[in-house]
From TrEMBL, chains A, B:
SUPFAM superfamilies: YheA/YmcA-like. This is UPF0342 protein J43TS3_02780. It comes from Ornithinibacillus bavariensis. Pfam families: Com_YlbF. The lineage of its organism: Bacteria, Bacillati, Bacillota, Bacilli, Bacillales. InterPro entries: Com_YlbF, YheA/YmcA-like_dom_sf. Belongs to the UPF0342 family.
Amino acid sequence: MANLYDSAYDLEKAIRESVEFNELKTAFQAVMNNPTSRKMFEDFRNTQMELQQKQMQGLNITEQEVENARKIVELVQQHEGIANLMEKEQRLNVVINELSQIITKPLEELYGGQ
Amino acid sequence: MANLYDSAYDLEKAIRESVEFNELKTAFQAVMNNPTSRKMFEDFRNTQMELQQKQMQGLNITEQEVENARKIVELVQQHEGIANLMEKEQRLNVVINELSQIITKPLEELYGGQ
Ligand SMILES: [Ca+2]
Ligand SMILES: [Ca+2]
């Protein structure tokens, strides 16, 4: 019987060595190494997090805020480096979601099987 | 380089074979096999999910609903089988959270390291 934590560390290592993670890392570092793209990306991130938090707290999001967010998304999508970073994030997210579905299968079967 | 999905399936197997998962399974089946405890547990679950959904949607939760939820929690905590099930759930949750922290370390390092 494999140890739970050994198995988790093996998976962590596999993620760290995966093509998807390393492509993300490269894309992230390219954006971070350029002050302009870094600031643009951080503004984008902060705006997204603020809106998410408001949504989770059930707070009102103004038309102005929606419009601002839309503009920032448009801006970052036109930036090649950030668009690339977002694509790599998306790809790794797909993988992580698939891994997560595999791992939580025992629980899903237990609670879904009744 | 270990394959990502092989590693995830190994971890899934380790979870399935773990003491914590098997204790939860036993506790869950004991509750489900008794119509009274099963109904009590399902009422509890449904009440919790309803409140969580309302919270996530930013909807108002009435005093009556809070009071109802409190009574149901009190009731299930006095039921030995359900109290045991909730303890086993709690224990597996702790393990799953620890595993999740291990697995997401590469991403945390990447985004936290700047
Ligand atoms: Ca790829
Ligand atoms: Ca135990």
